[in-house]
Amino acid sequence: MEPTSVLVVGAGGAIGTALVDRLVPDHQAGRIRLVATARRPESARRLRERGIEVRHLDLDEAETGGLGAVLPVFDGAERVFLLTGYDVRMLAQSKAAVDAARAAGAAHVVHVGVNAAPDTTIVHFAWHQLVEAYLERSGLGHTHLRPSAFMQTLGLGVAEPGVLRHWVGDGRPSWVDVADIAAVAAAVLRDPAAHAGQAYELAAESASLHEVAALLGEVTGRPWRYEPAEPEEFYRRMTAAGGDPVYLACVRNVFERTRNGTLTDPPVTGHIEQVTGRPATTLRAFVQRHRELFDTGEALSRAR
């Protein structure tokens, strides 16, 4: 009997890479047949070096070439992990991926969205919710993953040794380790029937940046302080680096509204532990595990 085919769309990103790490042992043991998509040659090369079948996928090609331009990538896939780019194109890209998965005979799609209130007015949060709604009406089995702010982004706020900068003022965002998102996704992909129709809000804890800076001081043994920064600074910096202005304006709005108190994250749930069977990664555990992000110049180079 052939193992179940699992297609990972977005395998070159942070979540996709962590998910591949989780699923490679299942692939090597013959429990699943792992297939990854990649758009860039360097991503494809790294995946092939791990003994994984790699298929080139650029979902934008569906716009100019029709669904047939991307459909072969989904051939034989029974379960699909779907994570698209962070700009408005995610709407068309995700629709094309869902349509291709359905046309190829897939049974289940695990989609990564965002942790937001059902009646959110944040534009890019609404994009994710529209994708979820389309997936739900597709007739495919589905599971929604809704992560909060990634702990990994804290390293980008290291302006100088001992100084943590961020753009949410005194707000208290909810945080999740990317590795926990991948662990939940892997568990669902291994047994989708147990998670069909579910939506999992993925957050380990809420904490202000003042609290994070204090935690950094405790773990690293040297003083840290938090310096609030203007959301407009973030927008200028990221658009100058080539980021999509429409998407980044949405992120700027999230920072501004978190700072002024008109936007708060949904309550932290126990979904990570519920699905994986082990506790979610706390901020303390994350900092202890990734001290290099805060102890060395690596964080400074990433921030620039």
TrEMBL record:
Domain NmrA-like: 5-238
Domain of life: Bacteria
Signal peptide (UniProt feature, chain positions): none
Cross-referenced InterPro entries: Ergot_Alk_Oxidoreductase (IPR051604), NAD(P)-bd_dom_sf (IPR036291), NmrA-like (IPR008030)
SUPFAM superfamilies: NAD(P)-binding Rossmann-fold domains
Protein name: Oxidoreductase
Organism: Nonomuraea gerenzanensis
